[in-house]
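Students often ask why we bother encoding 3D structure as a string. The short answer is that it lets us treat folding as translation between two languages. Here is a chain of 178 residues written in the first language.
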Amino acid sequence: IIAFIVTAYLTLTYCIIKTILDHLRTRTKHKAQPYQDRLSHAFGNAVIILSDQQSLTGISIVIAAVSQLQNGLASYHWQCVVNLIYTAMKIFRIVLMGVLIVMLAVVMGTVGYLLSPNSVVPSALPAWCLYHSDFEWRTLDGELVRPVYNWLWISISLGFLIFVYLSRVATFFSHESI
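And here it is in the second language, the structure alphabet:
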């Protein structure tokens, strides 16, 4: 069980380090950074190896627990195994849901221009323009379009998304394990 937990934290740490290295590499894209490239590649490989090891360790723990059921494995230890695997899966799902919510909030924020009752945004306007409202927007006829943002709709929608996400997280941890 200790190997499972240590591997999980090492994987998380290596993912954070690799993300930072990749961010630094993109900022200095025009300069060759062979050391950072090799280091980022090494951390990426380490994450894959640790993820595989964590999967194998989790499978091994479950197999060991199931094989000991006939030999009198205490219900406390069985519950520990089930909770360990269940919690690992819950945390993974919560993180993925959080990433999806953030991505949805970023792309949904631009829709405020499209849903405003006082603004007529041409449907042929490139979506890139929705992220750059400081530029002049013109129709194909050359008519100037003034962007008006629907803050009420976006605020209600984002509030609803956050509420749904937090309620899902709460339901993950509200049920007691058997």
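Translate back mentally: The mean pLDDT is 78. Keep this in mind for the problem set.
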